[in-house]
Amino acid sequence: MVNSTLSTLSYFILEAYMIVGSLKYLYFMITAMLFFVIMFANTSLIVIICMNRSLHEPMYIFLCSLFVNELYGSTGLFPFLLIQILSDIHTVPASFCYLQIFCFYTYANVEFCNLAVMSYDRYLAICYPLQYNTRMTFNKVFILIILVWLYSFIKFLITLSLNIRLPLCGNIINSLYCHNYLIVKLACSDTKVNNIYGLFATVVSILVPLLPILFSYMKILKICFSGSRQTRQKAVSTCTPHLVSLINFSFGCFFEIVQTRFNKDSIPKIVRIILSLYFSVLQPLLNPIMYGMQMSKIRNTCKNLYCISV
């Protein structure tokens, strides 16, 4: 009877928020400004890529998918953060918590898979430049993008359907936002099936994108060492933003996994908050700025648009 009552919890309490008094208005303004910059930068690049025929190439279409994912992930987090910063009672409805978990985890999976597809695209462009247009057709580009999003959504729907039925013995989550594993830890019943599938899903989420990334960059490095100086310059100019994005996202995922899986009581609370936001804030902020500055076609298109507007 107790388990039946507890399994129908209507809300969760987020315990990681600090009492900051009137400083909450300053934090609200900073968070709102970050959200605006992320939305503006990603939306602007999506519009630029869609509106300019010179950017209708596979690499830029994959970038467009990446920027759409940044908007998707940021929309699932920032409005929620803004409400919680101004609130004195940090509660969240259970249904919204599960929705945020779905948004958060599918965002991460789409991001990693999209970066994997982009690495394969760079491999074809650098290693097979004469055959690139026949190997990476527009139909293949759109099929890959659809597969990335469908795979990520279906895979996590199974995880969420297993977890959402668990009877819970508590409703306190030690985080700034909802986490799948932290809710599973509140379960009263046996979570062996959830843990086994969760481990399987984690391994698949890492290996499926990692294998094409490693394969692609091994081939690219081989071509760079044996190819001409022009080939090396092309590889550096097109792969540098991708590698920076991939490394940054990997570090963010690592921090997030360590925070949720291990005891972090010895770490100062402010450090835990910064590490929690690193994963979800820096990536959508870094990608549009970095790709906009590093990719010459996007940079030149932005300059031309600016000159026309002036």
Tell me what the structure shows:
Its main location: membrane. This is Olfactory receptor. Belongs to the G-protein coupled receptor 1 family. It comes from Dicentrarchus labrax (European seabass). By secondary structure, the chain is mainly α. It contains 11 helices and 3 strands. The longest helix has 35 residues, at 192-226. The protein is globular and about 60 Å long. Mean pLDDT is 83; it is low at 1-7.
Task: Summarize the SSE layout with pairings.
Layout lengths: L1 H5 L4 E4 L9 H28 L6 H29 L4 E3 H34 L4 H4 L2 H26 L8 E2 L6 H5 L7 H35 L2 H33 L7 H26 L1 H14 L1
Parallel strand pairs: 1-3
Antiparallel strand pairs: 1-2
Counting DSSP H or I runs of 4 or more residues, the number of helices is 11
Radius of gyration: 21 Å
Widest sheet: strand order? 2-1-3
What low-confidence regions span 5 or more consecutive residues with pLDDT below 50?
A: 1-7
Number of strands: 3
State the end-to-end CA separation. 70 Å
Please bin the fraction of helical residues.
over 70%
| Beta-strand content estimate | under 5%
| Average pLDDT for all residues | 83
How are helices and strands ordered from N to C?
HEHHEHHHEHHHHH
Shape: globular
Structural class: mainly alpha
Largest sheet: 3 strands, mixed
